[in-house]
Amino acid sequence: MSQNPLEETLRIPEVLPLLPLRDVVVFPFMILPLFVTREMSIGSIDAALSKDRLIMLTAQKDIVQEDPDPQDMYSIGTVAMIMRMLKLPDGRVKIMVQGLTKARILDFEQRTPIYQVHVEPIPEEDPPEMTLEIEALMRNVKEQLEQVINLGKMLSTDVMMVVETITEPGRLADLVASNMNIKVSEAQQMLEIDDPVERLSRVGELLSKELELLNVQAKIQSAARDEINKTQREYFLREQLKAIKEQLGDADSQDAEVEEMAELIAKAKMPAEVEKEALKQLERMDRMHPDSAEANIVRTYLDWMVALPWKKSARGKMDIQAAKRILDEDHYGLDKVKERILEFLSVHKLKRRMRGPILCFVGPPGVGKTSLGKSIARAMGRKFVRISLGGLRDEAEIRGHRRTYIGALPGRIIQGIKQTGNNNPVFMMDEVDKIGQDFRGDPACALLRSWIRNRTEASSTTTLTWRLI
Fold this sequence. Notes:
Layout: H1 5-9, E1 15-21, E2 31-36, H2 39-49, E3 54-59, E4 76-87, E5 93-110, E6 116-122, H3 132-150, H4 157-165, H5 169-178, H6 184-191, H7 196-248, H8 251-267, H9 272-287, H10 293-307, H11 320-330, H12 335-350, E7 359-362, H13 369-380, E8 384-388, H14 396-399, H15 412-420, E9 426-430, H16 443-456, E10 463-468
Parallel strand pairs: 1-3, 7-10, 8-9, 9-10
Antiparallel strand pairs: 1-6, 2-5, 3-4, 4-5, 5-6
């Protein structure tokens, strides 16, 4: 066993005052300040200063315990010398201690008013013969400690200078362990390891774990920093764009228009896909110059989107007797026609989501075809829309114009829905036999596609009546 140089010049007494430590383990040759607040601990310091300034330091097993009993403290600690002592105005005592040697508490000589304990010094084992394995282990620990410092670990600048001069594995293990932020239980386990090579190997494991944690922490900080930089960059660009718009004189009006349109989109209660497309077009409009032709096209499109009654339906109660009375009030005679209409309404009442036949009225002008459509709408409790198809030659009048055209508008059916303010009005297509056909398409085919879609899509609730003359 090798003797500590301080032990050779300083004899360790058999009985020493005991100072329990809450959250730190003191290693040999370690110098650190301690703040002492407990009366018993202050008494132990006074007792040590009145003699040879030596004191036994050991860690508590439970750091929250105010008055630890002997079983609440570890039996192995460090004999230290009090180098300085300062009494603070708030009643605390600050001391500077230096660890001398490991020691074991044999028994408690005195328990009140301070702890006095019998101690037995634990000499350091003889340093092993330096082999390639031990030298590699020491070099690895030194390199790991340097990496820890480079990754931002707050350590004293003198630590690396002292580490480079150490040639004993035990001294290196104690110095590195004393400067690492590890748990009390882990530090105590390391203190109790007698073999210096084993202790140094344990320090290397803790340094490897610390390096992994620091690398992960560095990645998290780098990602957070990139996100902050991106957010700041977007903020500065938006501020620059705002300043440019203010210089051009169109900032306030366009921003107010975009905000107003966003509120209208939120209030329109559109389906999720439709709302997503509307917000996408609103974002496009926000990036455009307000006086550009494309901005006007997008603005018109959004105006139509928010004006349509997406969730507003007429909920009239279907009453066949009331429908018969309405038909009799509005029309005299026409018994077969009214009977067919009542049959149609009865089937519609039994099968609420009917995609069945469309009523078609044929007859000369003035016999009451249009008024019959109005009576059907009144009997169903819905709005009535009449669309005149006479002379219609452009297919876009039915299915709507392309949005890329200046002055593009939706088709007649969508216009009728907007006009009534309900999404299930009764449509009457007037003068179907007078639909034309030319190079702009076939309106009759477009109308047929609308009718087929009306039959197949479950969301449609519009009833169509056709009028032929």
